[in-house]
Amino acid sequence: MTNSCVTLTDLPDEILLMICQKLTNFDVIYCLKGLHRRIDRIIHDSIFTSHLSFVKWTKNGFLDRLHCDIVHRRYCLQILPSIHDRIKWLDLEVSSMKQILCAAYYPSLNSLGLYNIDEESIRFLSTAQNLSSEVFETQITTLTVSLNENEQNEEIYESRARIFHSIFVVFKRLTTLIVDQSLYQKLVRLCLTDEPLLTHFRSSTLLQLTINVQCFDDCLSLLDGRFPSLHTLDVELANMYCSNEISNQGDLPNLKRLSISCTFET
């Protein structure tokens, strides 16, 4: 009996597809791209290219998958330029965000996940000359953000206000915004009533908002008409304080779902 060796290229498309679906899109593209023309055809399917996550979640935080220089260079110099027009969703960690966004032009990109972001990273999105502002201003409709809040101090409240305000300046067509702080044990919540920068910001396109705020006053501020198209609001607050002095900015004729939870903090 002679020995036989079966390689990936010997497998039918159906089996190759099943194998690829057991892996993350990040690993499929990195490990298999360029091995064979037929394999490239399979992994270039929208199943694997439409959503790429460069972020790995662990119990200690969100980590960058591009921590290795070899992986980083291959993605930025070879892979992303070759599939840039197929990508619709990117999850990025702040340490590699600039390089990935500058690696190619993404004409189909409509969703972003930005993890461990800070003021500097948001400022980069609004000022970088080698990035197309059209991508952010007109294409991005869904945004998930997780703020870098490992350091707790008084200035973090002002910093978070500036970040939140800048989000609506950079991303002008947002329909969904999720501020994901579920990872952190100590939350620095948004205080709309205490930060002048957040008093009058508005968005006429926002339909869905998920966020953590400090008190019931802040929740009422989100419902004061500044988001006239809003139909879904999920908000978690730390206390039920209410001054009953919220100034109404308009109506919410489209609001269909309101979910409020309270986690009392000491």
UniProtKB/TrEMBL annotation:
Native organism: Adineta ricciae (Rotifer)
What is the protein name stated in its UniProt record?
Answer: F-box domain-containing protein
Domain named F-box: residues: 5-52
- InterPro entries the UniProt entry points to: F-box_dom
Which PROSITE patterns would you find in this protein's record? FBOX
